[in-house]
Amino acid sequence: MDQAIEILGYLSYLLPTVVVGGIAYYFFKVYTEHEREIRHMELRKENRSDLLPIKLQAYERLTLFLERISPGQLLPRVKPIGTDKHDYENLLIANIEQEFEHNLVQQVYVSARCWNAIRASKNATISLIRNKNMSDKITSADKLREAILTDLLDKSSPSDTGIAYIKNEISNLW
Length: 174
Known about the structure:
This protein is mainly alpha-helical. It has a domain at 53-171. It contains 6 helices and no strands. Helix 1 packs antiparallel against helix 6 and helix 3 (85-102) packs antiparallel against helix 4 (112-133).
């Protein structure tokens, strides 16, 4: 019995030490997690400030891409080689695809939704060219150019929609 009382006496001295140790461990763990979060936030902030100019450059390049494939800019720049409307259609589409491939890497720096808007603008431009070429009234490359440009007098080009999306996304960066 004396031995049990003696053990209880030792435990009574040991129990506060264990409790204080547990509390110290808990506060140390919370403190180190908080410090890690602060360092992580500082790194993210630093990375964001380093990444912002690159993102803005990507938006600029994609805007330039959309401007270059806009029929109002594309048709005067890419002249028909001959009179065949199908050859001219293929030339225009090849030019759009080449521009697109040249800017493919920019998708890394923009959101998936923005990239999808860029691709949709490109595909809508190609579709516009193909649909105009299917008309029986179009008999030559020059008539195809004229029909596409006339069609755009009444409505905006697909590139305008893509550029509007880019501008909206840039405004959300601030």
